[in-house]
């Protein structure tokens, strides 16, 4: 006996009221209820013309192109020489910056606020130009991070291994780029760049976080760094470290107050070991060491050593 293979209904069939799928899943009722939720009871749509959201896939390609421009022989083409390397970098930058400008403009239109940087096309072009002008300085910062990883990890054998193989390195490259965009006002694009890094590495750094030179994240999985965190130079942290907020202030009506400084300040030359949770606008003094799995909500003087045994000896 011959058995026919079931097929998916065509688009026209799917819209037909007597389509079996419509009856099986009661789609008419579900679609109507979703319309009520979308348009009335739970509407989050802004007024005005519908706009396309920025593309995560396009931003991933842009990030890859920018990384190739920053490190052309490591992420780009191995056989580049003095005659063609500048051409390669220029080509990658041209494509990446054109795409970034489009995404910045699209994101500003999607938000729908004319005061958002990039809302006008000319503003998006100028923002992208300012971003591009900071790339040489960013590369210098990334090199300082690379050196810090080599010095701080006895398992590291060479720079290429760290640059293309360490998740902490990938995360900090993404963050350095996202932080520029955040500072220029392209906050939605910056947030998406940070989330791409989070997906790729398991490291979640808000693009607003300020991070000094020589930053090294060892292993990295589960690291969380909040928006208003300030990290000094030559800081090393390990996996599952959280630099978070202790509480969220509210106004008289109970609404969260946005933008307040609520994350830790970590001064220069600090080491924070795996699993430490540091909360609130506290300061970890220069040269201090924070032990693994410590829960910390108080200031720490310079050159301190904080362990689980000592963390609770002073009141928060």
Automatic annotation (TrEMBL):
Its EC number is 2.3.1.30. Keywords: Acyltransferase, Amino-acid biosynthesis, Transferase. SUPFAM superfamilies: Trimeric LpxA-like enzymes. One of its GO terms (biological process) is amino acid biosynthetic process. Signal peptide: none annotated. It catalyses: L-serine + acetyl-CoA = O-acetyl-L-serine + CoA. Gene3D superfamilies: Hexapeptide repeat proteins, serine acetyltransferase, domain 1. InterPro entries: Hexapep, LbH_SAT, Ser_AcTrfase_N_sf, Serine_acetyltransferase, Trimer_LpxA-like_sf. The keyword tRNA-binding does not apply. Coiled coil: none annotated. Belongs to the transferase hexapeptide repeat family. This is serine O-acetyltransferase. It comes from Bradyrhizobium cytisi.
């Amino acid at each position: 006996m011959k058995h026919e293979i079931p097929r998916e209904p065509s688009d026209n069939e799917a819209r037909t009221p007597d389509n079996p799928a419509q009856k099986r899943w009661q789609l008419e009722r579900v679609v109507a209820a979703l319309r009520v939720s979308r348009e009335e009871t739970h509407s989050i749509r802004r007024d005005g013309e519908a706009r396309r959201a920025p593309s995560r896939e396009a931003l991933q390609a842009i990030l890859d192109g920018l990384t190739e421009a920053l490190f052309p022989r490591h992420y780009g083409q191995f056989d580049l020489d003095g005659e063609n390397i500048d051409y390669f970098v220029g080509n990658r930058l041209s494509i990446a910056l054109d795409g970034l400008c489009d995404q910045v403009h699209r994101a500003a239109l999607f938000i729908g606020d004319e005061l958002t940087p990039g809302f006008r096309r000319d503003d998006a072009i100028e923002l992208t130009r300012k971003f591009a002008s900071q790339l040489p300085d960013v590369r210098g910062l990334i090199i300082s991070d690379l050196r810090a990883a080599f010095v701080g990890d006895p398992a590291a054998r060479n720079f290429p291994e760290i640059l293309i193989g360490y998740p902490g390195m990938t995360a900090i490259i993404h963050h350095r780029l996202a932080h520029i965009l955040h500072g220029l006002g392209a906050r939605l694009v910056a947030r998406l760049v940070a989330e791409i890094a989070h997906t790729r590495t398991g490291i979640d750094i808000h693009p607003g976080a300020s991070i000094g030179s020589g930053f090294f994240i060892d292993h990295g999985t589960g690291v969380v760094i909040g928006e208003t965190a300030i990290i000094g130079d030559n800081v090393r942290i390990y996996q599952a470290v959280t630099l978070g907020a202790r509480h969220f202030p509210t106004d008289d009506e109970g609404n969260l107050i946005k933008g307040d400084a609520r994350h830790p300040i970590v001064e220069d030359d600090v080491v924070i070991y795996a699993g430490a949770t540091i909360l609130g606008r506290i300061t970890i003094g220069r040269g201090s060491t924070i032990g693994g799995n410590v829960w910390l909500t108080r200031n720490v003087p310079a050159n301190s050593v904080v362990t689980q045994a000592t963390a609770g000896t002073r009141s928060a």
